[in-house]
Design brief:
This is Protein TolQ. The protein is an all-alpha fold. The protein has 7 helices and no strands.
């Protein structure tokens, strides 16, 4: 440990290099967790933006007055996005019922329930996809401050041991040692704060997207039921 402190003694690199090996491991783990959370954050930013743009375009097509069959056909046999998949699943049930013939109100009710279940399954699957990665953000947001605090406590204990061994309690000796320990808490907060903010934002975005799917499913179910009632 240096006999005197200098401005260079408080640089991030110097604090890391002079820290105890346990504190170094804590900081490396927190830095990796922060990088992982930022990867999730960037992925979610682009993904939610793409999902909403695709939903906007498809809702415009559905609301253009064209037949649902034409819109579903243009989406292809294996569409990438949720709304066309939901439309195709509902129309599949409708075509099967149309082939078999729907002649009573009871059959209409059973078909409506079957369509609702199919759409609910699609919504649950797409909502789960939208929420992928949010669990890791929650872990980083909640655990990082405590992990950083552990590194700080360990670093302070090690610093006091070193100071006692050196028999020098001057501020120029104590300050860098304490700063090395506190740096672990700072790294923990640097990892936790963006993850916490992003988790709350993307949880809200995922809920809004799920609500959008549910609204589309309700409108679609209503349109199918209207067709069925006209045939009975």
């Amino acid at each position: 440990m240096d006999a005197a402190a200098s401005p260079e003694s408080f640089s991030f690199i110097t604090l890391f290099l002079n820290a105890d090996w346990v504190v170094k491991l804590v900081m490396i783990g927190l830095i990796l967790a922060s990088l992982g959370s930022w990867a999730v954050i960037l992925d979610k930013l682009f993904r939610f933006s793409a999902l909403n743009r695709a939903a906007d375009r498809f809702e415009e097509q559905v609301g253009s007055g064209r037949s649902l069959e034409d819109v579903a056909g243009e989406a292809g046999s294996n569409p990438r996005h949720a709304l066309p998949r939901m439309l195709q699943a509902a129309l599949k049930e409708w075509r099967e019922a149309k082939t078999k013939g729907v002649q009573s109100e009871g059959q209409v009710a059973l078909l409506s329930q079957r369509i609702d279940r199919v759409l609910d399954t699609q919504i649950a699957r797409e909502s789960a996809k939208a929420e992928e990665g949010l669990g890791s953000l929650a872990i980083v947001a909640t655990a990082s401050p405590f992990i950083g605090l552990f590194g700080t406590v360990w670093g302070i204990m090690h610093a006091f041991q070193s100071i006692a061994a050196a028999k020098n309690t001057s501020l120029t000796v104590v300050a860098p040692a304490i700063a090395e320990a506190l740096f672990a808490t700072a790294v923990g907060l640097i990892a936790a704060i963006p993850a916490y903010i992003a988790y709350n934002k993307f949880s809200t975005d995922a809920s809004k997207y799920a609500g959008r799917l549910e609204n589309f499913a309700d409108d679609l179910s209503t349109a199918i039921q209207r067709r069925l009632s006209e045939r009975v």
